[in-house]
Amino acid sequence: MRFSPRFAATLLVATALASCASPPPAPIPVAVVPPAAPPPPPVAMPAAFIEHASAYRAYMQKAAQVSPAFKDGAEVEQSLTSAVAYEPKQFLRGVIAYAALVALQSPQFVAGVRTYAVDPVQRREMAQRLIADPNYATVLPSAASAAGLVQAALSADAAKVQRAGALVKQAAYDVQHQAWSKKDIPGREARLANAKLLSAQPLSPPAEDVQRLQGAVNGRDSTGASALGVSGEALAPPYTAVVARGLTLAALAALGEANDANMAAMEPLLQESTSAFCINLSKLNVYQCLAVAGPYYEDVFCLGQHVLLDTAQCVAKAAGEARPISIADAAPPPPAPQPLQSVSAGSGAAAPGSAAGLRR
Q1: CA–CA separation, 159 vs 165, rounded Å?
Q2: Cα–Cα dist 350/355, whole Å
Q3: For the chain, what is the domain count?
Q4: Do the domain assignments include residue 305?
Q5: Which residues have a Cβ under 8 Å from the Cβ of 64 and sit 6 or more positions away?
Q6: Which residues pair with 226 in a beta bridge?
Q7: pLDDT category, 154, cuts 50, 70, 90?
Q8: Number of H helices and number of E strands within the chain?
Q9: Position 267 in a domain
Q10: What is the pLDDT, as a whole number, of residue 352?
């Protein structure tokens, strides 16, 4: 086929222009943003544990308010009935759960633990280590700060009840110049049975206190102050088993792993054999004391020594503060009564330190 010279020239120009044209631009790649890591779970603690802590607090506050100014036997029995009413297992769970809430008042401790909460795998591994070994929490960052708060808070609770117990114990001697105190207690067997019954029933904590402790899980109120009003110096290890378990439960809460799904695994953290033995022995001493007490002043002794002082001493030991409070620490005792020529004694033989033989 023959083309005209003009058409051929036009075709050559078009071919040259086509060869010089730029290729079409490549499409702009779409930026792929990796999904953001989910935030760590919030600091939280099971509602049942908070109720245990509240029951412990309610009992210690009630026990610290027992007055030694008894006017008659009815007041003695009323105070005894009120103060003996706690169940040992719930009480110990409450001590440890409250210790955990106190530990959460240390912002340094919570912040240090929360660094392990960002990565889900690391968080779960840390939780498993804590549950397997409660002492692992004692080497976490700022554990000394949290442990100092725990010891200070539990020791302060114990001291208040010890003070009340020391004064009530002194009253067992002081009331002997009042005629009513030397009368035999009516219905002694029923009184002992009631004490055992009350010691087997868990306490129902006040709803408002449970709500307040729920707020304390996050450590600080709106002003930045401790929600529980606790303070204390850093405490170097070693720690008691109760303090270590309190730190462990607080660490799990700070990780966001102290949830209902882990309840069964965490339950052993609320048990501790040494403190359990101490509390159970305190209850046994109460029962033995009530079994041999005859006149009202001997029930006053049972209340002061075995209900209040023995229980408070268990809490003090759990905190790592074992020094018992003395009468001189509590308050100057009133003048001693004149020696009595004849006082009705309690029935039966009693071991040293029991209610029988309180006469001067």
Answers
A1: 10
A2: 7
A3: 1
A4: yes
A5: 157, 160, 161, 163, 164
A6: 220
A7: very high
A8: 15, 0
A9: yes
A10: 37
Structural domain including 306 reads 47-328
- State the pLDDT at residue 338: 43
Question: Could you give the CA distance from residue 164 to residue 83 in angstroms, rounded to a whole number?
Answer: 11
Q: Domain for residue 334, yes or no? A: no
Instruction: List CB contacts of 283: < 8 A, sequence separation 6 or more.
Output: 88, 199
Residues 6+ apart with CB under 8 A from 335: none
pLDDT in tens, 90-139: 999 999 999 999 999 999 999 999 999 989 999 999 999 999 999 999 99
Which class for 278: exposed (0-12), middle (13-18), buried (19 or more C-beta within 10 A)? Answer: buried
Q: How far is CA 239 from CA 92, 139, 167, 255, 302, in A?
A: 17, 11, 30, 22, 32
Distance CA 358, CA 335 (A): 17
For the whole model, what pTM was predicted? 0.81
The SS3 assignment for 10 reads helix
Q: Is residue 27 part of a domain?
A: no
The answer to whether the CB of 144 falls within 8 A of the CB of 235 is yes
Burial of 137 (0-12, 13-18, 19+ CB in 10 A): buried
Instruction: Return the closest-CA partner of residue 242 out of 330, 305, 157.
Output: 157
